[in-house]
Amino acid sequence: MRAYLFICCLAILAVLTVPAHAQCIALSDLLAIGADPMAQSSGKVVTDHVSVDWTFVGATPAAKDASWAFTPAGASAPTARMLVRPQRPGQDVVFKTTQASCLRDLRSELKARKLVAQPVTCPSCEAVRYQSADFDVTLYSQMKGEFPFVVVVHQVPAGLPPPAPAAAAGSKNP
Question: Is the Cα dihedral 83, 49, 165, 104 positive or negative?
Answer without folding.
Answer: positive
